[in-house]
Structures are given as C-alpha cells and as structure tokens.
C-alpha cells in the first residue's frame, strides 16, 4: 500500500463518501487510489470553484464532510471564492491539495507557489503532510477537524512523493468506520448564561432573537420559535443562512434584510438583541456618511451561544426556562396561484411558490431578482433554503450540485442570476454527467443589476457610458438554453409567466437536470 492508498482508505473509514475533484499531475497517485477503495465516490468538476462549491452544498445537507481534490496552489486559488462561502457557512469540508514532490520544490518549477499561505485564508485546520506513514492519521485528523463544531474547512497539503511512497503495514488504516474519528463535542452553555438571557427576554422591554447556524433548522429552530412566541421577542435569522428550514408547519423566522436601511426598520425599537449562532449585524459594505454597525444605539447585545458552544442545547434550555407550554408560530399552508402576463421577478416568484415540491432544496442566488421569493414561498410545503453565505457570487450552481449528491431522493431547485451563473456555469456538465435531479432557473436580465444598484448607493452616480460597459451583459446576449444544451442539460426559454409556469412544471416533473431561462426585466 502506498501513501495515496493509505490516505484514501482512511478518508473512507472516517466516513467521507464523496470526493469532488479537479486533479492534475501531482495528484495522479490519489486518482489511481480511488479505484482501490469502494468509497469515496469520485465526482469530476471542470473547474475548482465548482468542486469547492459542491463540497459546500454537500456538507450543508449531509452534516458531514466531502473531500475535494485540488491541483497545487493555482487549483486551490481557483476554488477560493467558494471556500470563502463555505467558511462563512461553517460547512464541514476536507481539502486535499497536491503539491510538488519535496525534493522538486527547491527547483522552483512553473506551478510552485505558497500553498500554505493561500490555504490559511479559508482553513480552520491546516497541515502539510510530512511522512507517508502518517497519512492515514493525517486524513483522520482532517475529518475530525472539519467536524469540530460548528463545522470548518480542514486542508491537508500532500507532497507527491509521499503519495507514491510505500507505507509500513502498521501505518495502514484500520477499517472501523466513522466511529474511528475522535470528533470534538459541542461545549455546553453555562446555566447562568441561559438564566441571564431568560431574564432579559422576560424583562418586558422589546427584544429580538437573531439566530444562525444550527438554530435555523431542526430542534434549534423549534426551540427558538417557542421562545419568541412566549416572550414576544421578534424572531430573526441572519441575512444569508447556510440552511434555513421553512414552509408550511415550520416556525417562522424573518431573514435580516440585505440593505442597511431595511435592517434599521427591522430593529427599530428593539432594546435587547440576543445572538444565538449569529453575529451582531453589520452592513455588507461601507457607504459614505453611513454607520456600518446596524445595532441601534440604545440596544444591548447579548450572546447566548457561539462558536463551538452547544447552540441547540442552549436554545432548548432557554425555551424550557421561558416557554413552557408555549407553541411556536408556524407558517400556514398557502400557495399563490400561478400568474399570467408578463414575466417579471415578481411573477417568477409566484410561479415558484405555486409549484415548489415538498422537501425541495432551494439554492438561492437570485440576487436582485429575488425580493418576492420569501413571501411567495412562505406557505409552500416544507423545504430547505440555502443561500450565498459569504457574498462571493458563483456559488448557486455548485452548491446545488453538491446538495443533489448528498440528497438524491430530494428535488433541488437552483434560482440563479445570469451574471453569477457565468462564474461556475460548468457545474451544469457535472449535473448531466452524474444525472443529478437539479432544476436550474436562470434569471436573465442582461446585466449586473446588483452593481447598478450599488453604483447609485455607494457612489451616488447614474451609470455613464464607461460604467454601463462594466455592468452590461447584453452585447452579445447570453443564450443559456444553448449553453445548457451544449453541456447535456435539457433547456428552454420563457418570456411570459404562462410559459415559465409550463416550463418549470415540466422540469420539476422529470428526473435529471434541467434548465429554464427566465427572461425578466431588471429591477434597477
């Protein structure tokens, strides 16, 4: 057994079932080793940003890490934007990055770079492998690190000569399954913190509970709903949750707005803001003459749980202290009727609300075309909503790909803006190659509409001719139907609400990947 086989076997023993890869020469022994081990499943991505985004989507839905296989520093760099999103999502993820052989690095070959420095910007755990006999332990340590609450990116850098070096029999991994990984458990929140927070929420002063992480789903969300119902606190969730459970019969959590002006309205009058798995709200960008801290001056911020602390346990204890017998406000089952007439961002949202399947996974990178989606889908059958956690666009198609691999029994709907889609459009090929049940809606308004909006907000300027050139996607126009069909994905274009209703209905009813191009006017 060589080092590569030892590493792949150890990943499999630790519970890693999927490897999203775009390998190169320095990783060929790892590629060969994938045939020697029944797991993990190997999924080819044509760009490293698709591989890292897919691993993010997989981890968000599976609650366990996938591995990526990346080629040297440039390959890692190509995947960095979606690793940034994964870091912000606290997704468990294991990067395996190949490097030059130890004795070759001193020659400064063309692809030589400082991999450690690049990886450190997104990794919560980073190790450069030092011996072939240690690779099995390195892999197990990486998985354990990725699973450290609330989840993080673990990066293992593997010099090529360690991959091809034979390991001693004693260094080979023992088959023991995921139980062989010593996973760090969440840290209990102190009783006095729970009691103090309960006192704040029962004080009679206006309060809000801002949730993130594990509190946006499952037991944590139900406990938060009970707390809000019993105390009168406003239940909010972070602007871009990694995974939000919502729909009919699910506790209602209002997402914090993107625009600072809207957040000011949501928090107006709040005297106590309790953070549960979320950070204190700030604006995404600085604007001339505007404050970046969005907490009102007369509002106190209280932290219930964060980081490695047991968020679900803390919310359950807080619910027991404040909400005995209280029931959370649940979303009522309600769907809009499919509209007719012009296809706009608003009518698009009503069609999605009318047709969204039960247990769907919605990956939302609709950006400026998405304002009506929360209201239109609030009463749809229960579903999960995955968002752009780190703000680095190009995550929608890859995250949808990984979510479909993690949950093959659930339909995935990706709502994607046209500009963002072009960053990682090759994810469509992987969806076709793997036969994944992903329906992609590309909202084509022929421009970077969000940048038009930000130009007016940040620079207080109307686009001039040079600015328009940097924000326009219409010369030539993007033909997403042809692009999708060229990658093996059935596709059709809609220009009216009726056409979109029929096209989306057909795509959702048929297994496998589909794309619907929705031609909509820009909002700004």
UniProtKB/TrEMBL annotation:
- Thiamine pyrophosphate enzyme N-terminal TPP-binding domain spans which residues? 1-106
Record PANTHER family: ACETOLACTATE SYNTHASE LARGE SUBUNIT ILVX-RELATED, THIAMINE PYROPHOSPHATE ENZYMES
Q: Which residues form the Thiamine pyrophosphate enzyme TPP-binding domain?
A: 381-517
Which keywords accompany this UniProt record?
Answer: Thiamine pyrophosphate
TM region positions: none
Identify the domain of life: Bacteria
Family classification: Belongs to the TPP enzyme family.
Which protein, by its recorded name, is this? Acetolactate synthase large subunit
